[in-house]
Specification:
307 residues, alpha+beta, Phosphorylase Kinase, domain 1, D-amino Acid Aminotransferase, Chain A, domain 1, 2 domains, 7-stranded antiparallel beta sheet, 32% helix, 25% strand, globular
């Protein structure tokens, strides 16, 4: 794994959008190219540092899960192999080193304006709200729960989707008002099915998926597809099963070191929660190490050197 990072790409294709981490390019009317940079965000703020290997982990781990879970819910994935991508888009040949490992060819969809969050354990913003008010997105939860406690059954907890600014937890009813009741029910059922299958498969690798988010889009003919990324350290909380202990925060394989660092700055009054702040080298290195470690543990594969 090289220490070189890619903070942003500029490819000779129409740019559809530049997100917090990804650039999305149009290949043609049927396909998109998703390029995962090494940018990092937390609490919906994009930070100035890049994390070595991060974009490749997000892409290759998503590709692994898209293949593994395609029988559960149809998805937009076509290929993450750079040779196949260059065959489809030969104009990218001179950008091979820039896109290798971090680029995914996908079916084109119109994304739905919600994030489909499934929480199997009480952690993060859900724990913060519960500790304060006993609720999640305003809906009451049972009394007496502790931090990191397993939620059985898992809870579907949608959110708004913001390219800029903060996402907001919403109720299922509010989501149905946004996307329609029938689509809302389909998104909920698909998300819970995906979480259950992913949780069980990660459990075989001694990894707990505490929570995760899914995104969906519609093709031109109205087909609903799972899109974006899938069960990555950016979209999920991964905990080592052998160190799980409810009643406290858990060690993790995701960007928890970053969240903890920023939360400490905010608690001490050194961060306003909105302004990008530079990260210490040890926080960046801890994230890079954790991302690559969980990739190996879940996929059972060594990280490709070409990525």
């Amino acid at each position: 794994m090289t220490d070189a990072t890619v903070s942003q790409t500029t490819l000779p294709l129409p740019l559809v959008r530049r997100g917090k981490v990804r650039e999305v390019y149009a290949v043609d009317e049927h396909a998109l190219l998703l390029v995962a940079s090494d940018r990092v965000s937390a609490f919906d703020v994009v930070l100035p540092n890049s994390v070595p290997g991060k974009g490749a982990v997000l892409t290759q781990m998503s590709a692994f899960w898209f293949r593994e879970l395609s029988s559960v819910v149809p998805n937009h994935f076509l290929s993450a192999d750079v040779e196949e991508i260059l065959e489809r888009v030969p104009s990218l040949a001179e950008y091979r080193s820039e896109i290798a490992g971090r680029t995914m060819l996908c079916r084109r969809t119109a994304p739905l304006p919600v994030e489909c969050v499934v929480r199997g354990y009480l952690s993060g913003s859900a724990w913060a709200e519960y500790a304060q008010s006993g609720t999640l997105a305003g809906a009451p939860l049972p009394a007496g729960l502790v931090e990191s406690e397993q939620l059985d059954p898992p809870i579907f907890s949608p959110a708004t989707k913001a390219e800029v600014g903060h996402d907001e937890n919403i109720t299922f009813q509010r989501m149905c008002e946004i996307v329609g009741a029938e689509t809302g029910a389909r998104l909920r059922d698909a998300s819970l099915a995906l979480y259950a299958e992913g949780r069980d498969r990660a459990g075989e690798r001694a990894i707990i998926i505490a929570d995760t988010k899914f995104e969906f889009g519609r093709t031109e003919d109205g087909t609903l597809l799972l899109i974006d990324e899938l069960l990555t350290p950016d979209s999920s909380r991964f905990w080592p099963a052998d160190r799980y202990e409810p009643g406290r925060g858990q060690p993790s394989f995701d960007k928890q070191p970053l969240r903890d660092y920023l939360a400490g700055l905010k608690r001490d009054g050194r961060w306003d929660g909105n302004t990008p702040v530079p990260l210490p080298a040890d926080v960046v290195e801890a994230m890079s190490r954790r991302y690559q470690d969980v990739f190996r543990r879940i996929t059972g594969s060594a990280f490709p050197e070409s990525a």
